Amino acid sequence: MRTIPIPSSSVGDIEIKPPIDLIPDEYTRKRNENFYVEAFFSNNDQSAVGFLNCLEELKFSVIRTASDTQLFEPQWITRVQKSVNGKKYDGILLLFAKIDLQVVDINKILDQFTSKHCPELKNKPKIFIFQKGRSVRSDSTARELKWLAGYDIPNEAEMFIIHDKYEDGTVDLFRQLSVRMKELVEQKSTNSLEFQRNYQLTLISTMTK
């Protein structure tokens, strides 16, 4: 049996729901190939491509959806729903790498993967990585904090959300995750995916099993 590591970090700039002592260290699954993984990114994004290569080296089957415009497309979510419903996946990981999310209600994206819409994923881990691109407006921070603080995900949702605002290119979430994953695999230890950062990263979890 394999396990899914849950990233950990210092409390400082992280918001966690519910209390951290209720969040499990790992979820058990049979094999990485049975975890649905899809990435929405630009083919020119080498850090995202490198992270996807890392996942594939770990035997995850990664669906790569390249976007020339890097604009969010609602049909992505509908297609993923159709792909997972009726299947027996052990969980789901969706990555939005430097995708423009300005006109997107992220709350609605998350809601589409609760048991109401994806019953086969009930009580299974659902991981979302939202990395906003550089084309952000001056008031974007306030809007981000509003949806992050205001979204009330049902406890049964078993969601882990990473929200990263990519700005100047000096530090990239996916590049650091790739390095940490390679190090942990070499150490044969995946208890944590901590990584050094000098920018604000927001994590929210409803993993209460």
From TrEMBL:
InterPro entries cross-referenced by the UniProt entry: Caspase-like_dom_sf (IPR029030), Pept_C14_caspase (IPR011600), Pept_C14_p20 (IPR001309)
Xref: Pfam families: Peptidase_C14
Caspase family p20 domain segment(s): 99-137
GO molecular function: cysteine-type endopeptidase activity
SUPFAM superfamilies, A to Z: Caspase-like
GO process terms (BP): proteolysis
Entry protein name: Caspase family p20 domain-containing protein
Species for this entry: Dendroctonus ponderosae (Mountain pine beetle)
